[in-house]
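Re-run requested by the PI after the first attempt was lost when the workstation crashed. Everything re-entered from the original request form. Ligand of interest: flavin-adenine dinucleotide.
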Amino acid sequence: MSTTASVIIIGAGISGISAAKELAENGVENVLILEATDRIGGRIQKQSFGDVSVELGAGWIAGVGGKESNPVWELASRLNLRTCFSDYTNARFNIYDRSGKIFPTGLAADSYKKAVDSAILNLKRLETQCADKISEEAPSSPKTPIELAIDFILHDFEMAEVEPISTYVDFGEREFLVADERGYESLLYKMAEDFLFTSDGIILDNRLKLNKVVREIEQSRNGVMVKTEDGSVYEANYVIVSASIGVLQSNLLSFQPPLPRWKTEAIQNCDVMVYTKIFLKFPHCFWPCGPGQEFFIYAHEQRGYFTFWQHMENAYPGSNILVVTLTNEESKRVEAQSDEETLEEAMCVLRDMFGPTIPYATDILVPRWWNNRFQRGSYSNYPMISDNQLQQNIKAPTGRIFFTGEHTSEKFSGYVHGGYLAGMETSKSLLEEMKQSLLLQPLLDFTESLTLTHKNPNPQIYSNVISPTNFISGRS
Ligand SMILES: Cc1cc2nc3c(=O)[nH]c(=O)nc-3n(C[C@H](O)[C@H](O)[C@H](O)COP(=O)(O)OP(=O)(O)OC[C@H]3O[C@@H](n4cnc5c(N)ncnc54)[C@H](O)[C@@H]3O)c2cc1C
């Protein structure tokens, strides 16, 4: 038995939900959302920890206070979501060495300036290399613990994107941490309420199907068939795939016919960033909590080793929670070991910074985005020197299959607002395609009848000429 819909959306993260909402608002209500997990939200996920709700995935609304309004900030304001301004600028003046001493402000400022200069030089070198010119001067690589710590902060946080960073240019430089018991994900429930049947905050609409792991997507001239791990089959005119770039790189989804080479190459060439926030709960605070002390840094000879710390007293006073952020290889290393081992490592680092008498953490929470087969990483990471073709190919539809998600957002990849806007944009392209194919339908029917009447030995010729999908995307 198969279920039929006009459009199937794979994934109920922010891009999948915003794509479905856009379709519904434009009269396409016969949609089906298939989500692999038992919840909506994807990489926006809250979890109770200690006595509060922490965000395992997206935590900040980045890009606020600028000339344009960030649509996610607007949604949050409508919902009265509780947020807390984050000021990272002081972090560089709270750098601890392994004996617990804070590096003098002057030294930290100098190291910071040196790292910025070196990063700019590196960027220029990359640009000149792209233009096939040879550059003379190589930037010096960071060596000391403080240089390594600053390099990590700059490259894995502040400069981890293509310059100029559209989020901050368009929407403003301020960032707000979501600190609301309802969670960041409540934005998605709010959006879903507009087009799905909900009661008491629970989605009861059978157009959303949870625990449906899509494994096969088969397209033909007439439509698309989607098969899930539990043996269900769904049919539709079109499919929107919102699974992450990491999932597309894995073998979770198989396409029939296989995706063309330009598409698979683009998918494989996009880097995936792993970003892990580890939460630690303590019986009481032992770290400084005054103004400018929310973020602090640990300088170690191994780059990225428990470097970036945040206390949660600004967001949730009295929560006694610390968060340490790891990235990439360190994230993968920690995901592969037991939480007890990670806790022991974190405690050694904290004892280095704050002395041997600090209390032992009573709880630890280690999200595993890399090993999650429905994520395979935290977000897309495009090369520093932008490559428009790469992104265009990742985003381009192949026949009746459309692609969305933060990784398809030209300006805002990696962000919640990137996912939100990408979902809308993909649905707009699909609506355009549907309109065109409706206009072409009489012509299609006519050709079909010609094919039947004349028993054309090679009907493929006709379908190649007028298939609406070929016509629109020009790529099939
Ligand atoms: C640790 C972390 C921190 C972050 N911090 C921030 C931040 O502070 N600010 C910010 O703006 N952004 C942040 N981000 C990025 C942000 O979370 C994402 O850009 C955004 O949520 C992505 O939304 P999406 O809809 O593109 O993808 P997703 O949320 O991943 O949605 C895709 C959905 O598809 C489902 N799926 C996958 N495979 C299948 C399948 N085979 N069948 C059915 N369903 C499937 C998944 O379960 C998921 O629900 C962070 C992300 C992480 C992981």
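Saved to the shared folder this time. Residues 244 and 289 are 37 Å apart (CA to CA).
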